[in-house]
Specification:
The structure is a single chain. This protein has 3 helices and no strands. By secondary structure, it is an all-alpha fold. It has a domain of about 35 residues. The chain is elongated and about 55 Å long. It starts with 8 loop residues before the first helix and ends with a helix.
């Protein structure tokens, strides 16, 4: 028997956002030749990347909701 766990959409968004900040931190730290730190990475990511990321994630969630609604019909 397979048990499917429902994931909380907010948890998934938070996890995804943290993952993106970690990627940003790694890339920018490599460019700087040193660790820029989580706080700086998070602030810069929120300022420079968050609006486009949010739009992209929102569109993904809408498509997923539409697919689920269509599969129920």
């Amino acid at each position: 028997m397979t048990i499917r766990q429902k994931t909380d959409p907010l948890d998934e968004l938070f996890r995804s956002q943290q993952e993106e900040i970690n990627k940003y931190k790694w890339i920018e730290s490599e460019k700087a030749g040193r660790d820029i730190g989580w706080e700086r990475a998070a602030e810069e990511w929120m300022r420079n990347c968050f609006p486009k990321w949010k739009h992209h994630r929102w569109q993904e969630l809408i498509r997923e909701a539409d697919r689920k609604a269509q599969s129920r019909n």
